């Protein structure tokens, strides 16, 4: 993506909720070269920040609520989490959790858009979000998969002021001319039980190698490594606990 640091309205963090934190640490450490650091405070509930060369790139956490799905969650930066929640509900979305203070790090909330896709809002204080983007092992793109693209476009442009590309094949989200994500319309090829969702893509040096390492580590390749015409080489994967994520070759233009 064309963002290189957290900016208001843009993706600033990716967070995995998983049933097996220790297994997830091992899997992603091998896959991306992450160094996981678990917050020792009891109140943190096992919250683990993954780092590359000291820079925070993502988080891994236990599931905190009954019924919470195993999934990667994308956070978007906001100036005021409380005001952002009001904007979400006014635009037809729903507030599911918070806003809540997280120590002195910031204030967050969990929300859903009108098509059912969950996302998080993050008002950074001492922690603005990821310290590295677009480099191998770090977040480099976010993608909304939805069955109602027009409704989704209306919602996100209203709440965050995003631009949305006119392409019917793959509209792209942007802030001030900097694209950071895209939107896929879910058709009959997607199982009915798969809800609308946000999918983070992590940059990697070699997509094929990461796909092999995923299966070797007990995960699944959902979309084989593919070169997008006039775009990057990508794959969509699933970790051993069931969370989906994408990868793309670092250095390819998104």
TrEMBL record:
Question: Which intervals hold domain VOC?
Answer: 10-124, 138-250
Mention any Pfam family matching this sequence.
Glyoxalase
> Which PROSITE patterns does this entry report, sorted A to Z?
VOC (PS51819)
Q: Which Gene3D superfamilies match?
A: 2,3-Dihydroxybiphenyl 1,2-Dioxygenase, domain 1
Identify the InterPro entries for this entry. Anthracycline_SecMetBiosynth, Glyas_Bleomycin-R_OHBP_Dase, Glyas_Fos-R_dOase_dom, VOC_core
Question: Where are the membrane-spanning stretches?
Answer: none
In terms of domain of life, where is this protein from?
Answer: Bacteria
Q: What protein does this entry describe?
A: VOC family protein
Q: Which organism is it from?
A: Streptomyces tendae
């Amino acid at each position: 993506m064309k963002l290189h640091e957290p900016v208001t309205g843009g993706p600033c963090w990716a967070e995995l909720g998983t049933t097996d934190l220790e297994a997830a640490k091992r899997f992603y450490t091998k896959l991306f070269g992450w160094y996981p650091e678990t917050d020792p405070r009891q109140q943190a509930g096992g919250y683990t920040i993954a780092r590359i060369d000291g820079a925070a790139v993502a988080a891994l956490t236990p599931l905190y609520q009954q019924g919470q799905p195993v999934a990667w969650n994308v956070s978007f930066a906001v100036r005021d989490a409380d005001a952002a929640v009001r904007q979400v509900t006014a635009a037809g979305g729903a507030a599911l959790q918070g806003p809540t203070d997280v120590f002195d790090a910031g204030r967050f909330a969990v929300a859903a858009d009108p098509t059912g896709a969950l996302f998080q809002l993050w008002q950074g204080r001492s922690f603005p979000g990821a310290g590295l983007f677009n480099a191998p092992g770090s977040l480099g793109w976010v993608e909304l998969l939805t069955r109602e693209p027009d409704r989704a476009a209306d919602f996100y442009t209203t709440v965050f002021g995003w631009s949305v590309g006119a392409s019917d094949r793959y509209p792209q989200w942007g802030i001030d001319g900097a694209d950071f994500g895209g939107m896929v319309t879910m058709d009959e090829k997607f199982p009915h039980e798969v809800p609308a969702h946000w999918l983070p893509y992590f940059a990697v040096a070699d997509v094929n190698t990461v796909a092999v390492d995923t299966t070797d580590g007990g995960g699944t390749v959902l979309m084989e490594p593919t070169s997008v015409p006039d775009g990057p080489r990508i794959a969509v994967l699933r970790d051993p606990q069931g969370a989906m994520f994408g990868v793309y070759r670092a250095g390819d233009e998104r």
